[in-house]
Automatic annotation (TrEMBL):
Coiled coil: none
Name of this protein: Isoaspartyl peptidase/L-asparaginase family protein
Domain of life, per lineage: Bacteria
InterPro entries: Ntn_hydrolases_N, Peptidase_T2
SUPFAM superfamilies assigned to the protein according to its UniProt record, in alphabetical order: N-terminal nucleophile aminohydrolases (Ntn hydrolases)
Amino acid sequence: MNKIAIAIHGGAGTILKTDLTPELEQTYTSGLQAALDSGYHALQKGQSAIEAVLAAVISLEDNPLFNAGKGSVFTKQGKHEMDAAIMDGSNLQAGAVAAIQQIKNPIQLALDVMRHTEHVMLSGQGALDFAATRGYTLEPDTYFFSQQRYNQWQQVQHTDTTALDHNIPVKDKKFGTVGAVAVDSQGNVAAATSTGGMTNKQFGRIGDSPIIGCGTYANNHTCAISCTGHGELFIRAVTAYDVSCLMEYKGLSLQEAMHIVVQDKLVKIGGEGGMIGVDSKGNTALLFNSEGMYRGVRDNTGINEVNIYK
């Protein structure tokens, strides 16, 4: 049997131990472990890598601590616009949704786009029209309300500032995105990413998370990648696919390829954040160039780790 493994992230940025109380740190850690366990248990039961990353991301979307699903940040208009993508490395099938509202689990809708349409990405009202054909129930805005997120939005609502962080002022940057990558017992890899985007974002802004090859990518021949960081820079660098290219065309290992992209290519253009990756052999890597990244990894060799800081 192939080695099974899963890695998750819950955002990266200026995450310092001095900024979190022991109680809040434990709450984050517990949330990450719960998501990690959800995905790993799917793999243990012989389910596919797609099912594993779906389970892990749904767990994170349902946790208001993380900027995705229930914990999504406020837009300039006081709404919640969410993006998500999922990709199957066994056949390069992918699905994504962008700028959607009132969907409890955007990652599930992204999967339905992959499985039940001929398209890769649906956005805005069109994505919601599709959701209606699949029997989705729209959640009221109150479902997505968080006092913490509301307070953050209030600090920048009357400006043109777009906050990349969970905590304002910007000195406490935390790039809020969640994601998972996994390899199953058949050696198939998959990646999934979901986000509420930037606080106070305008004009239907879309980041890297739902863009295949930028924030999310999976290919059995190379790797599965999910990114978190300053989306505009990750789009320009085509980060997720760049890791795959370095592995495919230069023969680099997962760790080597991710190191070049995260610690060199992104740094040179001012791209702060990180990514998680897995290959078909079960190797995992979790790299970031920021002060911290909410992250976890578990496999069937006994590794089961959750970390926040460097």
